[in-house]
Design brief:
Structural class of chain A: alpha/beta
CATH topology of the largest domain in chain A: Rossmann fold
Helix content of chain A: 25-40%
Oligomer: homodimer
Distance between the termini of chain A: 38 Å
Low-confidence stretches of chain A: 150-180, 276-295
Largest interface: A-B, 45 and 42 residues
Strand order of the largest sheet of chain A: 1-12-11-2-3-7-6-10
Order of helices and strands of chain A: EHEHHEEEHEEEHHEEHEHEH
Chain lengths: 295, 295
Amino acid sequence: MRVKTDIIFGDCAEVLCHLPENVVDLIFTSPSYADQRKKTYGGIHPDKYVDWFLPISKELLRILKPTGTFILNIKERVINGERSTYVMELILAMRKQGWFWTEEFIWHKKNSYPGKWPNRFRDSWERLIQFNKSKKFNMYQEKVMIPVGGWAKTRLKNLSDVDKLRDKSKVGSGFGKNVSNWLNRDKVYPTNVLHLATECNNKNHSATFPKELPEWFIKLFTRPNDTVIDPFMGSGTTNLASRRMGRNSIGIEILYDYYKGVRDQIEADELVLFEPEKKYETTGLNNECYRVRRE
Amino acid sequence: MRVKTDIIFGDCAEVLCHLPENVVDLIFTSPSYADQRKKTYGGIHPDKYVDWFLPISKELLRILKPTGTFILNIKERVINGERSTYVMELILAMRKQGWFWTEEFIWHKKNSYPGKWPNRFRDSWERLIQFNKSKKFNMYQEKVMIPVGGWAKTRLKNLSDVDKLRDKSKVGSGFGKNVSNWLNRDKVYPTNVLHLATECNNKNHSATFPKELPEWFIKLFTRPNDTVIDPFMGSGTTNLASRRMGRNSIGIEILYDYYKGVRDQIEADELVLFEPEKKYETTGLNNECYRVRRE
DNA sequence: GTTCCGCATGAATCGATAG
DNA sequence: ACTATCGATTCATGCGGAA
């Protein structure tokens, strides 16, 4: 089975209109934060942010499958000593547009931007807002299970008396049931906080998020051969991860330099792939053994 | 120096009206989440939450000093597969009321409660929303500095020769100056993510947050002898922390059992110190107590 | 080969200065 | 007054060269 990776040069507000409806399993993207990347993306003013984004999210709602998921990586910046409210306003507006606001994951950044100010600390977290078309969507939780950490061990060690007691006394109790399940388990489900470092040492393409971020959500919300889209592709982290993991993907990028860079990588990769015998080794379909580190 | 701890039995919506304006340095509280503790607090319906809270936050705005801070610990619950929007709506409404939304800290819970659901993971973070009366407020950042990471250690060890030289040669240089500052520094500033465990060992009253949480903000936003208030006292974690740290505090609680429990602790604490002067009655107002120990 | 160490590099934010 | 630009601040990370 061949994996398609379509890299498109253009403004996603226009490009998305040409895509058919109900074809995408996962949208994972990080649009330019309001006024943030002025030199590269043109910097949307905070007051115009919602109006700018809503037409795009409307198209995204159209192309997403009913069982699909939209993960939006965003963080409001500080203006005049206050956090801007455009993210909250965007969530409220998107709900009116028909989106379900299912969850908000947190990306806890290990290495946040340095600096010191008299009235605030460094910002070391970003939002990963999960939208869906309904309460029912595909989620493959077991694909992102992580090794049992220190917490579960000590909890089992210390509380096992009480918990086992509870397990016996209350048969229907979900808690007791869980504990007995854990006893023979070496992996646990993660939480809604992802603790990752940013990749800030890459000189050529400054990726805004580490590849582990899209990888995690691709594993969680798609299966091999599903389709992922990133309408604000940037350096192509989402698409390259999709490709490695055997997912088809679409990337839309408004700046030619970024577009060209990603295209070149994909094309070089194609050449490697079509050498005999190498075809499937690099897709890494079931090679999903890395883990998100948790403290 | 005496430290006062006033524990008041009543509904904060009414009690707060009787407090004078501009007297409080820090408000730290965790109101009952919408519809969450139905049996104990009466469970505010999510749709009514903002309307219920706004009169209270209006009084809080009145009693807070211009340099003071309001930290609101809250998290929206899931209803019908979606996160409720009342927290976002509350922030927007409180801004209209005159509050500055300065920052949103994250409490990243190390050990979140176990459980499994088909379409979401365990929720292991809560919001700590910081409001102020203006851009200018008291913040004692050095009080919450934390041990340094790897970088500064190696840097100080290895580069001190070169840097000291540079320090001598270039007097006005910011770099040289910084290095000399670093030489005696083994601590760095924290970020806006607090990574703390929940307290699961409290058997009598289930505290909603660990004592480290109010402690951190009390250190950050108040000095000894300042005044802290928790209008939804619960098991009194905020007030007991304030008391230990030499801050005056006020706690308001609508449920008699909680009120009584905290009062008993405070009184017992006081008896230890001033046994002959047992003069307090059960009225609760102006219940003066004495400081036990400093940080 | 390892380990060690210097270094550049950030979705940042504030206050001052300039137009 | 109001916006635009600039310098200063700060620290975790991974690369590459050195020991």
